[in-house]
Amino acid sequence: MITVRVFRAESVVADECPVPVPMGLYRPKDDTDPRLIVIDSAGEKWVMGFTAQHRLERYRITG
Predict the structure, then answer these.
(1) Contact by Cβ (8 Å): 31, 50
(2) What is the pTM of this model?
(3) Distance between CA atoms of 25 and 49, rounded to whole angstroms?
(4) What are 10's strand-pairing partners?
(5) How far, rounded to the nearest angstrom, does the alpha carbon of residue 56 sit from its chain's CA centroid?
(6) Is the separation of the CB atoms in 28 and 45 below 8 Å?
(7) pLDDT per residue over 5-56, tens digit each?
(8) Alpha-carbon distances of 20 from 1, 2, 14, 39, 44, rounded to whole Å
């Protein structure tokens, strides 16, 4: 699942991303750290992803 574009992100090469980015949410595995799990309005569990891409540049979500 992909969220709306509301997160800030930074890159080692290009500094801050010029636009807000979405966060990817993935299905948790058995050994997933529970601090990374979020629950949606339907009660489904997801794991937060902390990387995003904009114009072929990879960014790390920071806020």
Answers:
(1) no
(2) 0.74
(3) 6
(4) 16, 60
(5) 16
(6) yes
(7) 999 999 978 789 999 999 999 999 999 999 989 999 999 999 999 999 888 8
(8) 17, 13, 14, 22, 25
